[in-house]
Amino acid sequence: MTCPYCKNSDWFWKKIGRCKRCMDQLTVLSVLCWIVWWFLFKDDPKSIESIALLIAGFAFNGLLALHLWMRFVILPWRKRNGGKE
Question: Model pTM?
């Protein structure tokens, strides 16, 4: 990642929710993962490829949800209450 938050910050919680590029990448990866799973592996959900795509899809969605929660709920709440971002 080449954004200033991801490149210069070492701690995970200082990065999350601040990088639009990361959120864009997670959105694309999540959508692609679910589309590939739906068209290629939904008929055989017990295959290793299907399980790997399911786990990846849920991981991408979970991380994206955490990014969005921080971006639109936690960070504005901190800013409104006078806390440091």
Answer: 0.80
